[in-house]
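From the pipeline queue, job 12 of 40. The input is one protein chain; the requested action is below.

Action: predict structure.
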Amino acid sequence: MTPFKEVVRHGRAWLPVLAITALLGSAVTLALPTVLGRSVDAIVARHGYGQWFAAAAGLIALGIVCALVEVFTGTACVVGTTAWLRHRLVSQVVRSGPDGTQAFDTGDLVSRVSGNAVDAAQAGPATVSAFAAIVPPAGSLVLLALIDPWLAVAFFGGILLVIGVLWVFARRTAEISLAYQETQGRIAGLLTEALTGLRTITAAGTNAREERRILGLLPELHKHGLLTWRVLARSGAQAAIVGPLVLVAVLAVGGLQLVAGRITAGELFAASQYAVLGAGLGSLTGVLGELARARAASQRAGEVLAIETVAHGTLPLPAGPGRLTFDAVSVVVGDTVLLANVNLDLPGGATVAVVGPSGAGKSVLAALAARLRDPSTGQVLLDGVPLQAVNRQALRAAIGCAFERPQLVGTTVGDAISHDAIGPVRTLAAARATHAHDFVSRLPEGYRTSLLMAPMSGGERQRLGLARAWPASRLLVLDDATSSLDTATEMQISKTLTEDRHRRTRLIVTHRTATAARADLVIWLDGGLVRAVGTHSELWQDARYREVFG
């Protein structure tokens, strides 16, 4: 099922009501000219016009009610569908992991979730409106044929011209709408990138260059917007010409038929109203434009929904010390080999340092251990169970991760540490263990201090990242997570890790000699290969190992 059809289908709770009211409104529109025409004939005959006036008033009232219900139903459908689609998009992005979203800029993803979701949600109401808008002209053709076949012939010739105008408009608008939305997403991506690196941009004095880079796409956006208006203006002008021609043709034929006595004055009046309805088919440009934008937005949302999410198994983790095994693990991206045939059997409860020069594959190894990515071949096991077979909740409770540049998530400092699996007591314990409590307690509102208002150094941010990872029950993966700490604090935290009373396995990516020296075991990586495994003192005998630390 295409994303567009899926979005339309989601509105099924409201769409039947919307369709019924739209069709009922169209029926009122079709019935009113006939009733008014009968009223004209009754006035000419000077009897019976009261009942036709009453019928016309009733139809008008019914039309107003239908319009009100249609607006309410359409709005409710769009609101509900937007919320549903945004929830799906956010869930897909979160569950896809780092690898799944790497093909998208952050700003582009935000534009798809925020703006495009609203446009896509119009799919259901716009589809119903488009079909409902066809009913009056089609019904007009039938009713004109009942009044007089020649009126229908004149009407049909003009309608073919209007349909041709609409066909060209719909095809061009769909192309331009997609290009416009894609350009908007690229601008959002560039802006997000600039905001992330704003401090660097300011320090380098490249503000003007970044401004030109971001705004450089505005001419392209302007071009697409201008094309949209040109297509709309051209189609509107063509419809404005064709519409009166339809009316004139029907009135000319109707006038001749009236003179010939084949139709009455009331029927001529009704025919003129049906001609106006047919000419009004040109107003479908607005509905078709909305439909085209919905299709384009659905396509962009569908690209996000097509991302493969990280699949989790159903197995729990058995009791164990946190033994970590890499069984013939390789990671290949394109033609680049990041890790090649890694075989490691790391004892549970040990402190394991991972060292190597830049690009050696240290962060890739850490990501595999935390199941932030999966190997191209081979498997990673925790206490004998492949990580891919473990259910999500058990996996995330067992493994904690901290990074060199942690992204602090939440509203307050306390939110940045705590998560669903731990309460206030364990949050405080984690903060104390990682020495984050030392500076958090000095903040204006302590753990309730807003993250936006909390002045923090890189080392303090790292301590919060460590605190968030600390409650993990079996494995701690620290990817250069203490690099910004001062020497004294780093030694305190290293001591806490080494003397961890929970006896969890600790996999620590590091560039520091002291950290490697305190580890039980060191993995020496170079060029994606495991050069050696042993204690720091054993490996220190090799001059190439010493070069790793400069």
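Job complete. The first helix runs from residue 3 to 10.
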